Amino acid sequence: MPVSLPAGLPHPDPDALAHSERVAELLRARMAAAGGWLPFDAWMELALYAPGLGYYAAGGVKLSGRGAGGPPAGDFATAPELTPLFGRTLARQAAQVMQACGARNVLEFGAGTGALADAALDAWDDMGVPVRYAILEVSADLRERQQARLARHGDRVRWLDRLPEAFEGCVLANEVLDAMPPRLFRWDDGGRLLERGVRQAGEGFGWEDRPAPGDLARAVAGRMPPLPGYASEINLRAEAWVRALGGWLARGAALLVDYGFPRREYYHPQRAGGTLMCHLRHHAHADPFVLPGLQDITAHVDFTAMADAALDGGLDVLGYASQARFLMNAGLPELLAALPSDAPARARALAPVQTLLSEAEMGELFKVLAVGRGLDAALEGFSRGDRRGAL
Question: How many CA atoms within 13 Å lie on the side-chain side of 271?
């Protein structure tokens, strides 16, 4: 049957449409088994991660850089795909963490195309720092791409199937927290808290809100007062993930890079529609029910909640800064000084850096939160502009 898309979204090819219909069939079956309704986080979990079908579990190009000549592939571009200078700068901060804890280990979660690992390993080679690099990746498709890209680094890189029991070194997680399914809530006009869920609407899907269960009601009540008509998210899964870091990060630090806000900004009364966002072929929109299995679905990060979760897990909060400030502190200016002096080549190299640093693009919206244990040295990435006081 014809697919109706929001204005401006590209129309997928027949094979992609057929795949999306298989994902929709699975979602409908799971909803029927659950009585015709799923809370949004359960629906999003299936749409993104259902084995062999979900957005991150099936094939297809998801991430890309911004190459010249024609439209970019994939659905969105992350900082490591824009320029290797991002990975090289994070490598400098990671090297300080490893030196401080006396362990040459790095563990990356959700390594995407392998671009961050590739650039960081090259940087450590240039610095003369031997590193053992591990990746924990839930997407079989992305894991294959990583293995192909990183083959040149040999057996220094390995892939894990489960969390380590204990780890010393530096943990990297770039745009990982935003992809963890949040629970959605809304207050009705009478001030009653509802949990947002999904029901079948014709051949597609639609919203249906139900009274919030006690655990959700208690979690939301601890963060903001009732605001009739207000809708937002709370990511208890991401908080549990950060809290669990305290169970296996024996010594070292985790650098968590993502887009989001401290709590007072996240739940600002003017942010009345929440932060849920979808990405399809470099088009951003707010309808999660479009083409399930073909588009990414994310929500911004409440960094206050992540810092609180780290403290609950027995970790220290080591720093919190905008991405622009962190990169400048961590050594990006030195890397820029080493760029080619040839004007056209230098301009090409600088263009994506402006995206990383600009307040109008990634520089302010993206933040870096560092949490860890057993480190005495202050991290260089937060030497200026540390905003822990704002959390």
Answer: 16
- Asked if 375 contacts 318 with a C-beta cutoff of 8 angstroms, the reply is yes
Closest by CA position to 99, among listed 46, 149, 155, 168: 168
Q: What are phi and psi of 11, to 5 degrees?
A: -90, 130
DSSP-derived secondary structure for 118-141: HHHHHHHHHHT---EEEEE-S-HH
d(CA 281, CA 298): 15
- In this structure, the number of other CB atoms found within 10 A of the CB of residue 229 comes to 11
Query: What's the pLDDT score for residue 166?
Result: 97
**Which domains are seen in the chain, by residue range?**
14-181+235-390 (3.40.50.12710)
Distances (CA, A) of 374 to 166, 213, 248, 303: 14, 38, 13, 22
How would DSSP label each residue in 36-76? S-EEHHHHHHHHHHSTTTSTTTS-S--B----SSS--SSSB
Q: Along the chain (391 residues), what's the average pLDDT of each consecutive run of 10 residues? A: 60 86 96 97 96 83 43 68 97 98 97 97 97 95 94 97 96 97 96 97 94 97 95 98 98 98 97 94 88 94 98 98 98 93 85 95 97 96 98 97
Are the C-beta atoms of residues 112 and 81 closer than 8 Å to each other?
yes
What pTM value is reported for the model? 0.93
**In the prediction, which pLDDT does 85 show?**
97
Please report the sign of the dihedral spanned by the C-alpha atoms of residue 354, residue 358, residue 360, residue 365: positive
Q: How far apart are CA 320 and CA 73, in angstroms?
A: 32
